[in-house]
Amino acid sequence: MSALLRQIPANIPQDMRKIRIENSHLTELPRGSFENISALEYLWLNFNNITVMHIKSLEYLPALKELRLQGNKLSSVPWTAFQDTPALKILDLKHNRLDVLPEHALRYLPNLTYLDLSSNQLTVISRDVFYSWPVYQRSQRAEGQIEAISNAVLALHDNPWICDCRLQGFVQFIKSVGPPIILMNSYLTCSSPKFRAGKFFHEVELNSCMKPLTSALDTNLTVPVGLNITLTCFVQASPSPAVWWTYALKLLRPFNVSTEPISEETVRSELLIPAARPVDAGNYTCTAANFLGNTSVAITLWVRAPWASTPDPGWAPIGPAEPGAHVEVRIAKQTVYGITLEWFAAAAAAAEPGETWYTLLVGRYDAAQKDAIYIGPGVNTYSVTDLLPATKYEVCVAVRNQAPRKGQCVVFVTGSDVSQLEQREKLIHIIVIVCAMVLAVPAGMYACTAEARPGCLARCPGTCPRRRGGQAQAAGSKESTLDSLPAGSEDGLCRPEGCHGGRRPPACEEPGKTRPPHRNSADLY
């Protein structure tokens, strides 16, 4: 008790008949946990942390009579593991986390006299689980006979039972069960759905399961612009289905959808569309599904002005003209890509300004069909954006979707995209200036070097006698190319004093001294 054991000890004596390990830290029952203790009859492992039980964890225990696993964390049990314990009479699994009981669960427990599955998470059980139990089968064969059959106690209370059609067979079994099978607590209660929560099994009548059947009172609706509209569909199904709405193959957000049961097998789902606009028109699909299948119903919604008889917003009158309904229109602001309009309704239109609707028709001047924009009551200004620059447009404002009259239309031309033109012009100017500077530098150098050469030769006829012949020959060849010119115009460094005083110029160096290599002006540049 309360030992720090994390696994079944391996040194248990082979003749041990009863083992009790409780309030410890066991987390699993591995394969062959008791393979050396074949004489074991009683195994109590209550209030541990066992979450996993291997399918061969009870191997080599043919004499086991009592297995108690109360207060652990088992969410499932390998029921076929009980093939190795044919003598088992007591199985205690209460206060675990079991949520499923398969149909073959009790098939390998033929001698069971006590089964406790209370205080788990069981919600739905098939009656076939108990119909395949050997104890129940023996009781049915012995009915009306004097044959003595031992009783079997069954505990199933304190589970969150879902009392719908899936539990119909199990509820019937509970109502009809009797000795030798005895319920520890026969007052099993429903946890859901809400209208059955808290009711006892013997108080409810469950019907057979049914595939969803969807319907709508009206599948074609036409509503005016700006009106709040609620689309409603009804679903008959058992068990209660999941319901969702789609529009243009997109799932609609659930906060606009409300679904509630109105009877045991009927659900009403409503989709709210606030302030309906023309873009809200289309097909809305209500879909319902349960484990038997799914079905849907489509509702078509048309949205138009409340006075319109057809949904086509053309230039022709849609309703009867109202005498004196005139609108004065002006442009309040204009940009490159749009304008802001203001209008004032006079005469009959101004009699009820809080109820007057307007139709704004916008399009190119030469377009046969204009886009219609519906403006609600109390609004007398509107901005039109995303227009093309340098394009001629026409905008008209009419009262109650009537054809525009003379003076209710404005023709305008959007401006040019000046900012982009200015940027392009500046870029061109910069490119021209840079190109001119690049081309002017080599030309200027050529002109300067060409003028400097003859002047230097004229001033230094006698000071540089060793270069005179070479220079004369170059002058005689009359080469005027840029590459033939000396790199630094060395002749320009000669002085009137010649080579007799002051610093010696480069042209008057000693004959034996090596001159620097020749570089043309192109290399210098």
UniProtKB/TrEMBL annotation:
The keyword Lipid biosynthesis does not apply. Residues 469-525 are annotated as: Disordered. Residues 492-513 have a biased composition (Basic and acidic residues). The chain crosses the membrane at residues 427-449. Residues 325-421 form the Fibronectin type-III domain. Residues 212-300 form the Ig-like domain. It holds the Pfam family Ig_3. Keywords: Disulfide bond, Immunoglobulin domain, Leucine-rich repeat, Membrane, Repeat, Signal, Transmembrane, Transmembrane helix. InterPro entries: Cys-rich_flank_reg_C (IPR000483), FN3_dom (IPR003961), FN3_sf (IPR036116), Ig-like_dom (IPR007110), Ig-like_dom_sf (IPR036179), Ig-like_fold (IPR013783), Ig_sub (IPR003599), Ig_sub2 (IPR003598). This is LRIT2 protein. The keyword Endoplasmic reticulum does not apply.
